[in-house]
């Protein structure tokens, strides 16, 4: 039985390290699914199982733990960057700018409350107290990448402080505090859920123009007789696509030079808000069964999977001239986009193509249309991005009066590169598409490796910190860091800026990068409003959390 005992005691063996991580991660994931009061900690519970393992001496060599911790962090933040990259810059448009500004204020208030608690409750002469408060800050806001960035920054200035203990003390009440503060904001603002739902419905009707609308029309306006489709576009000054026309019993694909005559039947895709004006100008809606005509056309969604197409515009591909088909709309990440000629195609897009079946088949071959190809992860892109991210993160940035140069580190560098690749990679024909499941798998693997490593390393001193040290202070100061900014910014967002309460909840959850809070918000709303608020502020919030972690450590802890 010695061989079996050595698997758990011989810290130098590879088998021991593999078993250590497998046990810590498996137990953490299973225990994280347990709900208390309808709330669970999810994979973050891996941190606590790691702390228990470290406390009882079930550990490994420190250099191996550090390597796995850093590699897990790099993988985690890089996959986050790839996910949020496509929507990162778009999130600043229109109302998103205001929401992101409020989220930034909330993040800065978190930092301000942390410093206030540090000066009020802690001995400022102890050099370890401020780094521990940084760990407490990131537990209070439930932001694991920020913890990793702070850890990495501390190592760069040669400080060895187990800030994960502060994180672990503050995290549980952080999860509960976010949801509790949302409830308090609801009562302070006297929110009525039914009125909020009615407001959302009214808003959707006012913004119906963003939804594609399909209709069959018969040309009855004599003014249009003998006019081309291009001329009608100019006269009407509305955005619409005419994907097929029935003229003298023959179905064809119209182009800009197609001439309309009275009695022609056409199929139009437009914005809902434009539908009434288009009907009034062209003619009434009718019922048409295109497949029964003498020259039947087909419409098919085709998946863009060929790397050679990545980044090209619809205009460059000349669908109408080369293939004799029309592209009526593009579906990207679940959203329907109008097929404008300057729209860049990306791997993973689904294009709606209308035309003769043989022509549609040729387009299908040209685009790839292979689900299997999409299911294969683009490993090369990921590791090329990681290399570039590490190089960027290691670049020293000299700032006057700073004792050491600022570096983005192994968290900030890969995150920025991933965001840029996710948004602009198609311009250099770099395929960045990964399926949601593949992204989630790689991200979760990185996260659990990081959490397990941090927990195991912190476990040796955790109980001493909690019982004999300042553990209770980390608990209640973490709670203050969690709730005070939410109460201030949440009320202002609702009362001054008149945002819907469900949007406010989503914004709070996104600012704290907290999925349990988003799940709670979604359970109260019948629409995706909370998720929209979450996704609007999440990219910038994640970026600022990671960047501020390093700035605080380098400026105030060195």
Short note summarizing the structure:
This protein is of the alpha+beta class and 558 residues long.
Structural notes for this entry:
It is a single chain. The chain is of the alpha+beta class and 558 residues long. It is 61% helix and 9% strand. It has 22 helices and eight strands. The strands form two sheets. The chain has a four-stranded antiparallel sheet with strand order 1-4-2-3. Strands 5-8-6-7 form a four-stranded antiparallel sheet, with helices on one face. A hairpin with a 2-residue loop joins strand 6 and strand 7. It is elongated. The two termini are 50 Å apart.
Mean pLDDT over the residues:
81
Q: How far is the first residue's CA from the last residue's CA? A: 50 Å
Residue share in helix: 55-70%
Oligomer: single chain
Q: How much β-strand is present in the residues?
A: 5-15%
Give the overall silhouette.
elongated
Any descriptors?
4-stranded antiparallel beta sheet; 558 residues; 9% strand
Topology:
Layout: H1 2-9, H2 14-32, H3 45-55, H4 62-88, H5 95-121, H6 129-140, H7 144-156, H8 164-188, H9 193-206, E1 212-218, H10 229-236, E2 240-247, E3 250-252, E4 265-271, H11 272-282, E5 298-303, H12 314-317, H13 319-323, E6 326-332, E7 335-338, E8 350-355, H14 357-367, H15 371-375, H16 379-394, H17 409-424, H18 436-467, H19 471-495, H20 501-511, H21 515-524, H22 529-556
Antiparallel strand pairs: 1-4, 2-3, 2-4, 5-8, 6-7, 6-8
Helix pairs in contact: 1-2, 2-3, 3-18, 4-16, 4-17, 4-18, 4-22, 5-6, 5-19, 5-20, 5-22, 6-7, 6-8, 6-19, 6-22, 7-17, 7-22, 8-19, 16-17, 17-22, 19-20, 20-21, 20-22
